[in-house]
Design brief:
The chain is mainly alpha-helical. It contains 15 helices and no strands.
């Protein structure tokens, strides 16, 4: 009888192991399909940037060009003032990212670690701003920039986006997971709230801060509508406006140079993600585990 029971348990165990292996294989297959689906457009973009025009749209497509045309990159770079556009975008993206890290951490600490009347109601109102479409704010923000005389300046590019309700929510959820005992010990040692924030809370929140930094940098770097509205001279153009200018100058048929220019402006975003990849993934997986 015991032998029969042991054999049945062994068979059941093998079936469970086989089931887990099948599920794991299916999950990996779905992930692999998604990865290929996401990578193929980038691979085509890079390949098209070094091809001759008559090879770009051949069917079936050739992933490795028969002959490499590096001149697409050189000619695309020399076509417009990319150095100036990159500088403007870098100033805008870095400033907005720094503003999000500072202001969102302050607001998130207030909502997560302090108690005051109406805190939760105020936080709900704060989150409600996420439901307001950005397009609704374009005209009021432009009028404000014109009143201040900041149209076609870095102030107009940076200040309207210096805060983030989403960033505050992200950091607030992460701050809630940090033990209160650490804050109590720091308060006994004589630390002020700002010292607690920047000496204890922020160092322990590097994954969430990195996640916010990556999101903020990508959003600012890829912004198009707002820079188009508040910039009136070419020296203040960002890379996205520069790409639009480049396309207007060379038309819609010069896809080799167009893809080379697209590679230019994509590299900083990919680099920012690769630098903070591990912290970014950790921040995404751990944020919000405690409400």
């Amino acid at each position: 009888m015991a032998v029969v029971v042991d054999r049945a348990a062994h068979v059941q165990h093998r079936q469970a192991v086989a089931g887990r292996a099948v599920r794991r294989a299916l999950i990996h297959a779905v992930i692999l399909f998604g990865a290929v689906f996401m990578v193929v457009p980038f691979a085509w973009m890079v390949g098209a940037s070094i091809k001759y025009p008559d090879e770009i749209f051949t069917y079936p497509p050739t992933w490795i060009p028969r002959s490499i045309r590096y001149e697409n990159w050189v000619e695309a770079w020399n076509a417009v003032s990319w150095a100036r556009y990159f500088f403007n975008s870098a100033v805008m993206a870095v400033s907005i990212t720094a503003g999000h890290l500072v202001l969102c951490s302050l607001a998130a600490y207030g909502f997560a670690r302090t108690r005051f009347p109406g805190r939760d109601a105020l936080f709900m109102c704060f989150l409600a701003t996420l439901m307001v479409p950005g397009q609704v704010l374009l005209i009021p923000q432009f009028i404000m920039m014109r009143w201040f005389g900041w149209v076609d300046t870095y102030w107009a590019l940076i200040l309207p986006s210096i805060g983030s309700a989403y960033g505050t929510f992200l950091l607030r959820q992460f701050f809630l997971t940090i033990p209160y005992e650490l804050e109590d010990a720091a308060r006994i040692d004589g630390c002020t709230r700002l010292q607690i924030l920047y000496r204890i809370i922020v160092p322990l929140s590097v994954p969430a801060m990195t996640t916010l930094a990556v999101f903020s940098f990508m959003g600012a770097w890829n912004a198009f509508i707002w820079p188009l509205i508040v910039t009136t001279s070419e020296p203040m153009f960002t890379v996205q406006l520069g790409l639009s200018t480049f396309r207007g100058a060379y038309g819609n048929n010069d896809w080799g140079r167009m893809m080379a220019a697209t590679c230019f402006i994509t590299l900083p975003v990919i680099g920012a993600f690769l630098v903070g990849q591990r912290q970014f993934i950790e921040g995404i997986t751990t944020t919000g585990m405690k409400g």
